[in-house]
Write a structure and sequence with these properties.
The chain is α/β, with parallel strands linked by helices and 255 residues long. It has a single domain, classed as Creatininase (Rossmann fold, 3-Layer(aba) Sandwich), CATH 3.40.50. Helix content is 36%, strand content 7%. The chain is built from seven helices and four strands, in the order H-E-H-E-H-E-H-E-H-H-H. A four-stranded parallel β-sheet has the order 2-1-3-4. Strand 1, helix 2 and strand 2 form a beta-alpha-beta unit.
Length: 255
């Protein structure tokens, strides 16, 4: 179900155990070959496929295009909500549906910069509503749900085993979704995706890691890989939401 296409009475008639999904993304630079709307477009397609599979059991809100992208601000085209306002934005969205009695909320994340503030937002939400039992407040990044797209048999094989930025994976998904919006990528040199100073966490901005704006191996992208990625990631989201639907309202795990 699409929240934006429903009437207020239709929403009011739903069981309050119906999961509400907020897909969240960003408008930010994606190197020289992908549009700044990439994250929003990709999570939108993952959500579209998941919604089609789940029919009338889950409500999907429109994709929130504004994300926390301060680390990309050295590159033109990036639009960012700083971390604290972004936390408050997510918390406010959840409070809207909690006010009407819904108890199962998933922020479906499609942008790496949203991961840390998104986790903090659901942590703060639970503390704010600590006296309300039966709440399930979740943040999930779609490429981190356990799927292994690199196990899929595709022409040329896989170079990456993790998501980068404007990389083999994102470029492939955009080629599958809207090839007209993908610029020249075949000659792009790879940029090391290893986190700096691993396993310690270093504060960084994107220009310190890449001058070109991409991280990973965009030259290895293909339409076939893009379809495999969408298929694996949307199936992961469906499995997660099936767990949410089956949750018993009490247990720490899925029920």
């Amino acid at each position: 179900m699409h929240l934006a296409e429903m009437t207020s009475p239709q929403l009011a008639a739903l069981p309050r155990e119906t999961p509400i999904v907020f897909p969240i993304a960003a408008i930010e630079q994606h190197g020289g070959h992908l549009p700044v709307v990439t994250d929003t477009s990709l999570v939108g397609e993952v959500a579209r496929r998941a919604e089609a599979a789940l029919a009338d059991r889950v409500v999907f809100a429109p994709v929130l295009w504004l994300g926390n992208s301060d680390h990309h601000l050295d590159f033109p085209g990036t639009l960012s909500a700083p971390p604290r306002p972004y936390l408050d934005l997510l918390g406010g969205l959840a409070d809207n549906v909690l006010r009407h009695g819904f108890r199962r909320i998933l922020f479906l994340n499609g942008h790496g910069g949203n991961d840390v503030p998104g986790r903090q937002a659901v942590f703060e939400l639970r503390q704010r509503h600590r006296d309300t039992d039966g709440l399930l407040l979740l943040l999930a990044t779609y490429w981190s749900l356990g799927g292994r797209p690199f196990d899929e048999d595709v022409a040329g094989g896989w170079v990456q085993r993790d998501m980068g930025h404007a990389c083999e994976w994102e470029t492939s998904m955009m080629l599958r979704l809207d090839p007209a919006r993908v610029g020249a990528f075949a000659g792009l040199a790879p940029v090391d995706a290893t986190p700096p100073f691993h396993p310690a966490h270093r504060g960084w901005v994107t220009r310190e890691r890449t001058a070109s704006g991409h991280i990973g191996h965009p030259a290895a992208a293909s339409v076939e890989k893009g379809e495999a990625l969408f298929r694996v990631f949307s199936a992961d989201v469906v499995r997660l939401l099936e767990r949410v639907l089956c949750w018993d309202g009490r247990s720490w795990s899925e029920g």
